[in-house]
Amino acid sequence: MTSPKTILITGANRGIGYSIVQATAQRYPSYTYFLACRSLSSGQAAVTSLHALGITSKLDVLELDVTSNSSILAAAEYIKTTYGHLDILVNNAGIAYTHKDDLNDLRESYNNILNTNVTSITALTSALLPLLHASPSASQKVINISSGRASLQNSVNGNLPSTSVIAYSVSKVALNALTIEMQKGEKGAVEYFAVNPGHCKTEFNGFRGEKDPLDGAE
User: For 9-21, what is each residue's pLDDT tens digit?
Assistant: First the structure.
Protein backbone atom coordinates (compact mmCIF):
# COMPACT_ATOMS: atom_id res chain seq x y z
CA MET A 1 0.00 0.00 0.00
CA THR A 2 1.40 3.39 -0.97
CA SER A 3 1.82 5.93 1.81
CA PRO A 4 -0.05 9.25 1.56
CA LYS A 5 1.93 12.12 0.12
CA THR A 6 3.37 14.70 2.46
CA ILE A 7 3.67 18.39 1.60
CA LEU A 8 5.44 21.13 3.56
CA ILE A 9 4.46 24.75 2.95
CA THR A 10 6.40 27.55 4.62
CA GLY A 11 4.58 30.69 5.68
CA ALA A 12 1.39 28.64 5.68
CA ASN A 13 -0.58 30.56 8.28
CA ARG A 14 -1.68 33.39 5.97
CA GLY A 15 -1.67 34.83 2.47
CA ILE A 16 -0.44 32.75 -0.44
CA GLY A 17 0.84 29.98 1.84
CA TYR A 18 -2.53 29.54 3.54
CA SER A 19 -4.29 29.58 0.17
CA ILE A 20 -1.90 26.94 -1.20
CA VAL A 21 -2.87 24.64 1.66
CA GLN A 22 -6.57 25.36 1.12
CA ALA A 23 -6.53 24.85 -2.65
CA THR A 24 -4.34 21.73 -2.57
CA ALA A 25 -6.16 20.10 0.34
CA GLN A 26 -9.49 20.59 -1.41
CA ARG A 27 -8.08 18.82 -4.46
CA TYR A 28 -6.00 16.18 -2.65
CA PRO A 29 -7.67 15.52 0.72
CA SER A 30 -5.69 12.32 1.38
CA TYR A 31 -2.37 14.16 1.57
CA THR A 32 -0.71 15.22 4.81
CA TYR A 33 0.12 18.94 5.02
CA PHE A 34 2.84 20.47 7.17
CA LEU A 35 1.94 24.07 7.92
CA ALA A 36 5.34 25.56 8.67
CA CYS A 37 4.96 28.80 10.64
CA ARG A 38 7.12 30.95 12.87
CA SER A 39 4.71 30.46 15.78
CA LEU A 40 2.61 27.47 16.77
CA SER A 41 -0.32 29.67 17.76
CA SER A 42 -0.61 31.23 14.30
CA GLY A 43 -0.35 27.79 12.73
CA GLN A 44 -3.05 26.38 14.98
CA ALA A 45 -5.30 29.34 14.16
CA ALA A 46 -4.81 28.58 10.46
CA VAL A 47 -5.73 24.93 11.04
CA THR A 48 -8.91 25.94 12.86
CA SER A 49 -9.81 28.26 9.99
CA LEU A 50 -9.14 25.58 7.37
CA HIS A 51 -11.26 23.04 9.23
CA ALA A 52 -14.06 25.61 9.31
CA LEU A 53 -13.82 25.76 5.51
CA GLY A 54 -14.42 22.01 5.34
CA ILE A 55 -10.82 20.85 4.92
CA THR A 56 -10.57 17.24 6.13
CA SER A 57 -6.91 16.55 5.34
CA LYS A 58 -4.37 15.86 8.07
CA LEU A 59 -2.84 19.22 8.96
CA ASP A 60 0.35 19.13 11.01
CA VAL A 61 1.68 22.44 12.34
CA LEU A 62 5.47 22.85 12.38
CA GLU A 63 7.14 25.69 14.25
CA LEU A 64 9.79 26.78 11.76
CA ASP A 65 11.98 29.84 11.48
CA VAL A 66 13.62 29.49 8.07
CA THR A 67 16.43 31.84 9.12
CA SER A 68 17.47 29.52 11.97
CA ASN A 69 19.59 26.43 11.30
CA SER A 70 18.53 24.81 14.57
CA SER A 71 14.87 25.36 13.71
CA ILE A 72 15.38 23.87 10.25
CA LEU A 73 17.18 20.81 11.63
CA ALA A 74 14.49 20.27 14.27
CA ALA A 75 11.77 20.36 11.60
CA ALA A 76 13.70 17.92 9.42
CA GLU A 77 14.18 15.55 12.35
CA TYR A 78 10.47 15.70 13.22
CA ILE A 79 9.44 14.81 9.67
CA LYS A 80 12.02 12.02 9.52
CA THR A 81 10.95 10.52 12.83
CA THR A 82 7.20 10.90 12.30
CA TYR A 83 6.76 10.26 8.58
CA GLY A 84 10.11 9.14 7.20
CA HIS A 85 9.93 11.17 4.01
CA LEU A 86 8.69 14.30 2.27
CA ASP A 87 7.13 14.45 -1.19
CA ILE A 88 6.75 18.16 -1.92
CA LEU A 89 8.37 21.27 -0.46
CA VAL A 90 6.78 24.65 -1.14
CA ASN A 91 9.15 27.51 -0.29
CA ASN A 92 6.65 30.32 0.17
CA ALA A 93 7.90 32.27 3.21
CA GLY A 94 9.46 35.61 2.34
CA ILE A 95 9.81 39.20 3.48
CA ALA A 96 9.93 42.66 1.93
CA TYR A 97 10.20 46.08 3.53
CA THR A 98 11.60 49.49 2.73
CA HIS A 99 14.74 50.86 4.32
CA LYS A 100 15.54 54.28 5.72
CA ASP A 101 17.74 56.76 3.88
CA ASP A 102 20.75 55.48 5.75
CA LEU A 103 23.57 53.18 4.60
CA ASN A 104 23.46 51.02 7.71
CA ASP A 105 19.72 50.48 7.41
CA LEU A 106 20.04 49.84 3.67
CA ARG A 107 22.68 47.17 4.26
CA GLU A 108 20.66 45.57 7.04
CA SER A 109 17.45 45.46 5.00
CA TYR A 110 19.17 43.95 1.95
CA ASN A 111 20.92 41.35 4.09
CA ASN A 112 17.69 40.42 5.89
CA ILE A 113 15.61 40.17 2.72
CA LEU A 114 18.20 38.17 0.79
CA ASN A 115 18.84 35.95 3.80
CA THR A 116 15.16 35.09 4.19
CA ASN A 117 14.20 34.94 0.51
CA VAL A 118 17.28 33.20 -0.90
CA THR A 119 19.84 31.92 1.61
CA SER A 120 17.26 30.41 3.96
CA ILE A 121 15.44 28.72 1.10
CA THR A 122 18.74 27.16 0.06
CA ALA A 123 19.38 25.99 3.63
CA LEU A 124 15.89 24.56 4.17
CA THR A 125 15.85 22.78 0.81
CA SER A 126 19.30 21.30 1.41
CA ALA A 127 18.27 20.04 4.84
CA LEU A 128 15.09 18.43 3.50
CA LEU A 129 16.62 16.89 0.37
CA PRO A 130 17.38 13.55 2.07
CA LEU A 131 13.70 13.30 3.03
CA LEU A 132 12.62 14.15 -0.52
CA HIS A 133 15.00 11.51 -1.87
CA ALA A 134 13.54 9.02 0.63
CA SER A 135 10.05 9.47 -0.80
CA PRO A 136 8.52 6.37 -2.40
CA SER A 137 6.77 8.69 -4.85
CA ALA A 138 8.08 9.17 -8.37
CA SER A 139 7.21 12.86 -8.31
CA GLN A 140 9.16 14.66 -5.59
CA LYS A 141 9.04 18.42 -6.08
CA VAL A 142 10.50 21.65 -4.74
CA ILE A 143 8.27 24.61 -5.61
CA ASN A 144 9.73 28.06 -5.03
CA ILE A 145 7.24 30.92 -4.91
CA SER A 146 8.75 33.63 -7.08
CA SER A 147 7.27 36.86 -8.42
CA GLY A 148 6.62 38.81 -11.58
CA ARG A 149 9.30 41.11 -10.18
CA ALA A 150 11.84 38.44 -11.10
CA SER A 151 11.36 38.99 -14.84
CA LEU A 152 14.40 40.87 -16.13
CA GLN A 153 12.82 41.11 -19.58
CA ASN A 154 9.70 42.83 -18.25
CA SER A 155 11.83 45.17 -16.17
CA VAL A 156 14.00 46.16 -19.14
CA ASN A 157 10.98 46.53 -21.42
CA GLY A 158 9.25 48.83 -18.96
CA ASN A 159 6.38 46.42 -18.33
CA LEU A 160 6.88 46.63 -14.57
CA PRO A 161 6.45 49.81 -12.54
CA SER A 162 9.29 50.95 -10.32
CA THR A 163 9.44 49.59 -6.80
CA SER A 164 10.45 51.00 -3.44
CA VAL A 165 11.69 47.57 -2.32
CA ILE A 166 14.46 46.82 -4.82
CA ALA A 167 15.93 44.15 -2.54
CA TYR A 168 12.74 42.08 -2.91
CA SER A 169 12.99 42.12 -6.71
CA VAL A 170 16.68 41.23 -6.50
CA SER A 171 15.87 38.33 -4.18
CA LYS A 172 13.31 36.89 -6.58
CA VAL A 173 15.70 37.13 -9.53
CA ALA A 174 18.21 35.25 -7.38
CA LEU A 175 15.54 32.71 -6.40
CA ASN A 176 14.87 31.92 -10.05
CA ALA A 177 18.59 31.42 -10.63
CA LEU A 178 18.78 29.25 -7.51
CA THR A 179 15.94 27.07 -8.80
CA ILE A 180 17.77 26.49 -12.09
CA GLU A 181 21.10 25.72 -10.42
CA MET A 182 19.59 23.34 -7.86
CA GLN A 183 17.89 21.44 -10.67
CA LYS A 184 21.22 21.16 -12.49
CA GLY A 185 22.83 19.78 -9.35
CA GLU A 186 20.02 17.37 -8.48
CA LYS A 187 21.37 13.84 -7.98
CA GLY A 188 17.99 12.18 -7.61
CA ALA A 189 14.53 12.58 -9.11
CA VAL A 190 13.46 15.85 -7.46
CA GLU A 191 11.98 18.41 -9.85
CA TYR A 192 12.42 22.12 -9.14
CA PHE A 193 9.96 24.85 -10.10
CA ALA A 194 9.81 28.63 -9.68
CA VAL A 195 6.24 29.87 -9.95
CA ASN A 196 4.65 33.31 -10.02
CA PRO A 197 1.26 33.45 -8.25
CA GLY A 198 0.58 36.95 -9.56
CA HIS A 199 -0.13 40.16 -7.67
CA CYS A 200 -2.48 38.84 -4.99
CA LYS A 201 -4.37 40.70 -2.28
CA THR A 202 -2.54 39.72 0.88
CA GLU A 203 -1.29 41.30 4.07
CA PHE A 204 2.20 41.07 2.54
CA ASN A 205 1.41 43.95 0.16
CA GLY A 206 -1.19 45.75 2.23
CA PHE A 207 -3.97 44.01 0.27
CA ARG A 208 -3.15 46.10 -2.81
CA GLY A 209 -2.99 43.13 -5.17
CA GLU A 210 -5.30 42.45 -8.08
CA LYS A 211 -5.93 38.72 -7.58
CA ASP A 212 -7.56 36.68 -4.88
CA PRO A 213 -4.79 34.65 -3.18
CA LEU A 214 -6.78 31.47 -3.77
CA ASP A 215 -6.58 32.14 -7.52
CA GLY A 216 -2.85 32.68 -7.15
CA ALA A 217 -2.52 29.41 -5.27
CA GLU A 218 -4.32 27.51 -8.01
Answer: 999 999 999 999 9
Q: How many CA atoms lie within 13 A of 112 on its CB side?
A: 12
Question: Structural domain of residue 51, as residue ranges?
Answer: 6-200
pLDDT tens-digit readout, 142-157: 999 998 776 656 665 6
- DSSP per-residue letters across 23-35: HHHHH-TTSEEEE
Give one word for 195, left, alpha or beta, with left for phi > 0 and alpha for psi -120 to 50: beta
Look up 172 and say whether it is catalytic: yes
Instruction: Out of 28, 172, 187, 192, pick the active-site residue.
Output: 172
Closest-CA residue to 13 (of 58, 54, 59): 59
Query: Where residue 119 sits, what CATH number does that domain have?
Result: 3.40.50.720
Number of domains in the chain: 1
Q: Which of 110, 168, 184, 187 is catalytic?
A: 168
45 located within any domain:
yes
